[in-house]
Amino acid sequence: MNVAFLIVCLYIVLLFAISYYAKRRSAGSATNYVLAGRKLTTPLITVSIVGLAVGGASTIGVAEQAYKVGLSAGWYTTAWGIGAIVMGLLVAKKYRELNITTIPELLGRYYDKKGMIAGIACQIIVQLVVMSLQYIAGGSILCALMPEVFTLTTGMLTSAAVFIGITSIGGMWSASLSNLLNVSLKYIGIILATIVGVSQIGGLNKLQLQLPQNVPYMDFFDGVGITGIITWIVVLVTVNLSLQSIIQISLGAKDVRTAQRGFIIGGLMMLPIGFVSALMGVMAKAMFPDVSPALALPKAIMSLDPILAGITLAALWAADVSTACNLLLSSATLFSQDIYKKFVNPNVSEQNFLRITKGAVVLLGLLTLTLAMTISGIISTLMIGLSLMAAFSVIVLFTLFAPRFCRKNSAFNTIITGVVVLVLWQTVPAVRILPHVIYLEWLACLGTFFLTYALDRESIAVVEEECA
After folding, report:
1. Other Cβ atoms closer than 10 A to 443
2. DSSP 203
3. Is the pLDDT of residue 229 over 90?
4. Is the pLDDT of residue 78 over 90?
5. Residue 319: how many other CB atoms lie within 10 Å
6. Mean pLDDT of the region 423-440
7. Lower CB count within 10 Å: N or C terminus of the chain?
8. Is the CB of residue 18 less than 8 Å from the CB of residue 174?
9. pLDDT surpasses 60 at 378
10. Who's near 333: CB < 8 A, 6+ residues apart?
């Protein structure tokens, strides 16, 4: 009997049970479905942002990198936590007061139509790329840890069925309530597996003795290096300020203080878990020093007690599920709210709009599954793709805090600049004069924003007046 497989099956059953319970809360209106009726409490906001951030890259990805460079890989998840805290302290209140549903809705309210259209396109593309990664990660987890049950393809198909199913059934309520299970499972599973694994080796001192001495495996900074750590923090603070899936969580809060508390507590919860995942990768290096990083972690997990191995497997997959559901829902919201309702059928009834949103969840889920099966290299370009959020962060920060510098063409010009910089960075090596594209994105987008302010005289409406 495959204990790990039975535990994963039980986990899937629980997820769908939660989703069907959530279905009753999400019924009746699109606001209930995409924003949980703006009734999410602090615990639900907390687990939602932790669930979104602590996904495959923050667990398996960190552990695999730690296998090569050591504990400093844990700064990736810590950078996510810092980004969430900055979001809670700086802009969660402003977003909540605007009473919007999407980032492009903000662009459409204050800027011209072409700026809003550019915003819709970029937000959807970035989220679909990140979403595709979740299918690859989910399939890889199931295939690597249960090769007798799953191939990569069947693992991806199983992941897709769960991602699409629970999101389409209950929307934001489903994603939030299921994250109570997902976050609990991933923290318990990863922490227990790491503690037991290190204990089997004989403790941290013996672990260090079994590691190669030419790599600073137990150092919190060397390995990735200060420059790499700062780059992660800059990228992920940028993402937290303007990515739709993150903003949508804050907009679902029942009030401003709930949104702020949820993001700050969630950010604090993320700070240590990356280093636990990194320690798991270092443990795998000591146990299996001569295999590829992708194989070392599964081998280390499956060497544990079968029940603990099954819980850890479910925990790693839970990390993927929690990220995927929020990304899928926010992408569907962008389509239904900012494309269908704005340009196809502005007078759509509430019930039909809800059906369109649910249909978008299914269709976009299938589209991203197709992308995941046909496009390679998504993981290596993830951080570069997320750098495009610098353009949105510049627009959002000026709109919320310094609207007198904003002009009707500012959004379009800044987004197009962000796209051009990203394309040039990928195709013209001579422009790579900075350590990472995120720095060039911020400089170019800020420069474009101020240049538009100097040359364009058509101001936007003042945000504070709209909120009053």
Report:
1. 13
2. S
3. yes
4. yes
5. 33
6. 93
7. N
8. yes
9. no
10. 34, 101, 102, 244, 248, 357
Q: Which long-range contacts (CB under 8 A, 24 or more apart) does 23-30 make?
A: 23/169, 23/170, 23/173, 23/174, 25/170, 25/173, 26/170, 26/171, 26/172, 26/173, 26/174, 29/350, 29/354, 30/336, 30/350, 30/353, 30/354, 30/357
Report d(CA 338, CA 345) in Å as an integer: 11
Nearest to 386 by CA among 130, 167, 169, 81: 130
Query: CB atoms < 10 A from the CB of 427, how many?
Result: 8
Structure tokens at 265: 């507590």
Core vs surface per residue 241-257: b (16+ CB within 10 A) or e: bbbbbbbbbbbbbbeee
Q: How far is it, in rounded angstroms, from Cα 337 to Cα 124? A: 12
Of 33, 35, 30, the residue nearest 45 (C-alpha): 35
Q: CB–CB of 421/436 below 8 Å?
A: no
| pLDDT value at residue 381 | 54
List the domain boundaries for the chain. 3-373, 387-468
pLDDT in tens, 162-185: 999 999 999 999 999 999 998 998
Q: How many CB atoms lie within 10 A of CB 382?
A: 18
Would you identify the CATH topology of the domain 3-373? Sodium/glucose cotransporter (1.20.1730)
Alpha-carbon 19 to chain mean position: 20
The per-residue pLDDT for range 268-319, each reduced to its tens digit, is 999 999 999 999 999 999 998 888 777 777 778 888 888 888 888 888 888 8
Question: Which range is least confidently modeled, 51-55, 100-104, 315-319, 413-417?
Answer: 315-319
Average confidence (pLDDT) over 242-259? 93
- CA dist., res. 455 & res. 426, Å (int): 30
| Segments in 214-255 forming alpha helices (H) | 225-242, 244-251
**What letter represents residue 179's amino acid?**
N
For the chain, the average pLDDT equals 89
Contact 56, 133 (CB under 8 A): yes
Q: What is the pLDDT of residue 283?
A: 92
